[in-house]
UniProtKB/TrEMBL annotation:
Residues 21-75 form the HTH cro/C1-type domain. SUPFAM superfamilies: lambda repressor-like DNA-binding domains (SSF47413). InterPro entries: Cro/C1-type_HTH, DUF5753, Lambda_DNA-bd_dom_sf. It comes from Streptomyces durbertensis. This is Helix-turn-helix transcriptional regulator. Gene3D superfamilies: lambda repressor-like DNA-binding domains.
Length: 287
């Protein structure tokens, strides 16, 4: 009955976290204060978590699993809760990123989610989901950062190929300081053999993916999944003919893009502008 309410309806992941936290604590005859001391977190945090007033974070989930010997239960429940923050149309594709041997991404106006800094992601989420509470926004930010860790920091990461429209570099999301840090993150991948980032310049003119984004996952088991996203919507695509069409669009954008080295040079130039609290020039040539 752990996974259901008394009326038989299924519990949400957050409700499951709260229930299992209380059950594990009471099974060990621990007060909230004693559990807080055991895991090294404030009693008020434990109380809020048990009453579903605050979702636990990665640190507390890991501490609970370690100190209570729960074999990863709280980490898994937290991952489940965060998965529900992803738009329904995108969940299946995002859930299968761990199976990918190659990921190809195109974004037209923002940085790819996996390549976003914490502050950049927070600014986008606040603008796009203004009615979310502060805690809901932070949960979404944490979920986005966790995706990068799972995808690019794993022992055998996939090849990651990103094509980003130049417009994403020019839009000063959250101001010059945030953009400086964002560009530094992109430059940090310059020597990563698994990651290639290229910029599609404005001078390339129109292209087939203006106004949206595309994720292509080539799976180790064979086959490719696609995720096409626009404003707050996402559509997962598995039909081979449609996949091929989107692959063609991606390759066309990639062919029209700057080389990896030229893209990195552009990041460096724009970084200098943002560091000096200036907007970068629209052109590609050195001013």
């Amino acid at each position: 009955m752990d996974a259901r309410h008394a009326d038989g309806s299924p519990l949400s992941p957050d409700a499951m976290i709260a229930r299992r936290l209380r059950q594990h604590r009471e099974a060990r005859n621990l007060s909230q204060r004693a559990l807080a001391d055991l895991v090294g977190y404030p009693q008020s945090y434990i109380s809020r978590a048990e009453n579903q007033l605050q979702r636990i974070g990665d640190g507390l989930a890991e501490a609970l699993d370690e100190k209570l010997g729960t074999n990863g239960e709280f980490v898994a429940l937290l991952e489940m809760a965060r998965a529900l923050l992803i738009e329904p149309g995108a969940r299946n594709v995002v859930a299968r990123e761990s199976e990918a041997i190659r990921v190809r991404v195109f974004t037209s106006s923002v940085m790819p989610g996996v390549l976003q800094t914490e502050a950049y992601a927070r600014a986008l989420l606040r603008a796009g989901l203004p009615h979310d509470s502060a805690s809901e926004t932070e949960d979404r930010v944490a979920a986005r950062l966790k995706r990068r860790t799972r995808l690019l920091d794993r022992r055998d990461p996939p090849l990651y190929r990103a094509v980003i429209d130049q417009a994403a570099l020019l839009r000063p999301v959250a101001g010059p300081k945030v953009m400086s840090d964002q560009l530094r993150l992109l430059l940090s991948f310059q020597d990563n053999v698994h990651v290639r980032i290229q910029i599609l310049p404005l001078t390339a003119g129109e292209h087939g993916m203006m106004g949206g984004s595309l994720n292509l996952l080539d799976l180790e088991s064979g086959g490719t999944l696609a995720l096409v996203e626009s404003f707050r919507t996402g559509e997962a695509i598995e039909a081979p003919r449609e996949i091929v069409e989107y692959e063609e669009l991606f390759e066309a954008a990639k062919e029209a893009s700057l080389s990896v080295d030229d893209s990195a040079n552009l990041f460096t130039r724009y970084l200098q502008e943002y560091d000096n609290d200036r907007l970068p020039p629209l052109g590609l040539a050195q001013e």
